[in-house]
Amino acid sequence: MHRDNRLAYWRANLRLVAVCLTIWFVCSYVFGILLVEELNAIRIGGFQLGFWFAQQGSIYVFVLLIIFYAWRMNHIDKKFDVHED
Amino acid sequence: MSLKALTYVVVGFTFALYIGIAIWSRAHNTRDFYIAGKGVSPIANGMATAADWMSAASFISMAGLIAFLGYDGSVYLMGWTGGYVLLALLLAPYLRKFGKFTVPEFIAERYYSKTARIVAVICLIFISFTYVAGQMRGVGIVFSRFLEVDVTVGLIIGMGIVFTYAVLGGMKGITYTQVAQYCVLIFAYTVPAVFIAIQITGNPIPQLAFGSEITGTGTALLDKLDDIVTSLGFNQYTSGTKSRIDVFCITMALMVGTAGLPHVIVRFFTVPKVRDARASAGYALLFIAILYTTAPAVGSMARYNLINTIQPGEIGAVDGNLLYDERPNWFRTWEQTGLVTFEDRNGDGRVQYYDDRNPAFSRQAEAFGWRGNELGVDRDIMVLANPEIAGLPNWVIALVAAGGIAAALSTAAGLLLVISAAVSHDLIKGIFMPRISETNELRAGRVAAAFAILVAGYLGFDPPGWVAQVVAFAFGLAAASLFPVILLGIFSKRVNREGAIAGMLTGLLFTYGYIEYFKGLFLKWAGAPWGDNVAQNWLFGISPEGIGVIGMCLNFAVAIAVSTMTRPPPEHIRHMVEHIRVPRHRESET
After folding, report:
1. Under DSSP, is residue B371 helix (H, G, I), strand (E, B) or coil?
2. At the topology level of CATH, where does B3-303+389-582 sit?
């Protein structure tokens, strides 16, 4: 029973990590590097979108991702009753 | 008050502050010395991590680097921030749960092997010393530039300050000094950036000014910049020259390397709880992002300012270029330091600045009567001269000096501490003298820190030619050696001692060998580098800066393959892995 709980907790964590790392990869490597020229055809304000992702957007996404992960994990910790006091 | 006097006052005040903090928070035992007694709040640790992370190079050189590289500079922006996502999601919470003092200690226990610990210590010392040598050089240069003393004198002052608070305060002293240093450096960085943003675009937030129109022209800053740099023969600002695979690999090597750098990882050992470790990584990156999103904005605006100053009129027109006799004050100031140089090749008394290595544009330039580029600009000028270019008061310039010094000192101190911990805790206590007393271990830690400062100071005083290059490679080596085995140690229960040792050695040797082959590090006497460092020769078109990614993949592959062919780890190791994966175990389970 406890073992099942631990396994379920670990799987929930891995799922969350996978989602976050996918976003991490897409916003930096895909938008900022692999598809940069294609995205540069789109403009937001004075920026070309691909260039913006490479020099600004990816960094904002990184910060938000960590905050989101920390917040969700606190939630998951509580749900599986493994949170610290 | 003169600028020099004001700089002395501001810098002197910050030094007094750092030493005061170090005395107040000095270490009383090894827990304090190695991991600040695990009592650091996540926000304070976030600031300390940010100061630890952002070196003199980030503060002084990065904006200028991006100003000249344009899009290609993105590798540094993404590479030196994205690693924190890996840290927060894959390493920090689990290593904090493990709850010991050093990175090699984790590797030793997880892989139940003293050999693994020694290999990890070797990787750590190699990575940290190459990194710290560059920092000490930076300390010396920053001191000499701002306080107008000799580089050697600057280096000795810097060593003295770091010595005082690292040896006395250990991790605890360093952490709280770094909090103060972060505040100084971020304030010093953003104030000039805000003023320049207002001057050029009218928008006070640099990150937004970056994408705004230049006041009174109706043209966006980046479009205008693309236009003027290409019309002077330079590469377009918003697109790159490196191949995609190389940009991809360099970015990844820097990201994974960040997550594998021992002096960054160990910062997450200092917080009280697992969830603090996660939150702390978020704060750290937030504080880092303030500088890292400002830097490219500063870079683009500084490049625009520079070209506008040199080329106020039409390109090719007789009076299109700046008259040397009418050069602005900052030009004169920084000419004295050699960071700006001018040589009137065509003898017209005006300054021409263009890309004379671009054959098509050079022919055109000759038709204008230009005889080659006449202006030399050191990239550091982009941050250092900003306050003067923007016409800001002297106290801002003094503040930038204090900020640069804070950035250099905080990084050097963090690195020296992990070196001393590796020596006193991993080598002396862990391997040679397991029964050493707490008091003696603390003493050994202090002696090791003092010794590391002397070695680092020597390397900074007399840098082997390769130091500057090796700093970049420290990331590749960290990515290829430490990161994979730490990650596997947490996420796999099957990877064993044999796999980890084989993996670390493969990653380290492959990456080191590739760099040696193309750049030449230690084996210059034997004829290295052996290969021409050009894209045609590179493996898969990946430069030595990005090769750590391949080293990392090899490390993973070898570690997993060797593990499946040898005996699985003993039962207690599998329990240990289960233990670090969960923040708290219920009473009945422990």
Report:
1. coil
2. Sodium/glucose cotransporter (1.20.1730)
